[in-house]
Amino acid sequence: MKVAAVIPAAGFGHRLRSSVPKPFIRIAGKPLLAHTLLNLQSAFSFADTVVATAPRLVRRTLVLLKECGLDRKVRVVGGGRTRAESVRNAVFRVSPSCEWILVHDAARPLVDPSLVARLLKAAKSSGAALCALPATATVKDVKTGRVRGTLDRRNIFLAQTPQVFRKKFLLERYQKLGKKALRATDEAALFDGSRVRTAVVNGEVRNIKITTPDDLRLFQFYLNGKR
Ligand code: C5P
Q1: Which of 5, 6, 7, 3 is nearest to 31 (CA)?
Q2: Counts of helices then strands in the chain (DSSP H, E)
Q3: Which end of the chain is more exposed for a tag (fewer CB within 10 A), N or C?
Q4: Pairing relation of β-strands 157-166 and 128-134?
Q5: Rounded CA gap, 147 and 141, in Å?
Q6: Which is the CATH superfamily of the domain at 3-226?
Q7: Residue 181 and residue 53: Cα distance in Å, rounded?
Q8: CB under 8 Å to 154, separation ≥6 — which residues?
Q9: Nearest-CA neighbor of 120 among 112, 109, 108, 128?
Q10: What is the pLDDT of residues 159-191, one digit of tens each?
């Protein structure tokens, strides 16, 4: 399986309230982006890896890659205004020899090798796969501060990354959806209502997305537990 890893890392990270851009925040001596990339690289031998970063941070990202010894394996492209646009920019720059794309948020540093293996297996048979956690809370449909209804949580799953797609299928969806594709909050959403039925594998609670200062503390907590 020739797989390219695509890593969106071009978010603003405003909710972290940090003066350092999110990918460069150091935790346990390593930038967040390095944690994510090194974990991914240990999970699978990717034929290509493309990181999308804020255009003004491309040079700084190249320096980071060199510092972690990843500069030969990972390429950097300018991201877009939305996550979906950043991913699309990177997908279009992936080596033509790769038939599969694994998309993984730079902001999820605790990606586990066994999760990657399970996703690749599932994608091989369906063409598209994501990992997700079943909802454990009761889920309300709320608009302007008022509850409109209660959703059946047995059908609610919270999507994570990595997500894996046959590249040909992903490119077909970009072509079909045009600009609409740039509003999607994950790539699996591009397949909603299409003939490709995305397979779901069990996500992991510790596969957190670093969004707020609390998430950084949680990340540190998980890292401490590892030692
Ligand atoms: O915004 P969200 O929390 O969904 O971001 C998930 C991932 O997408 C993060 O790793 C972030 O850096 C990335 N992103 C991006 N380009 C944007 C916005 C977010 O690559 N314009």
Answers
A1: 7
A2: 6, 11
A3: C
A4: antiparallel
A5: 6
A6: Spore Coat Polysaccharide Biosynthesis Protein SpsA; Chain A (3.90.550.10)
A7: 19
A8: 134
A9: 128
A10: 999 999 999 999 999 999 999 999 999 999 999
Question: Quick one: which atom of ligand 1 is closest to the CA of 9?
Answer: 12
Neighbouring CB atoms inside 10 A of 76's CB total: 23
What ranges do the domains of the chain cover? 3-226
Average pLDDT over residues 206-212: 97
Segment 125-138, tens digit of pLDDT:
999 999 999 999 99
* Burial track 124-162 (b if 16+ CB lie within 10 A, e otherwise): eebbbbbbbeeeeeeeeeeeeeeeeeeeeeeeebebbbb
* Cα 35 from Cα 40, distance rounded (Å): 9
**Angle ∠(54,189,167) on CA atoms, nearest 5:** 75
Spatial CA neighbour of 114 closest among 201, 27, 36, 28? 201
- Ligand 1: residue of 12, 20, 86, 91 to mutate (most ligand atoms within 8 A of CB) is 86
Which is it for the CA torsion 183, 159, 28, 39, positive or negative? negative
The one-letter code for the residue type at 164 is V
Ligand 1 atom index nearest CA of 87? 20
Q: Which atom of ligand 1 is nearest to the CA of 81?
A: 21
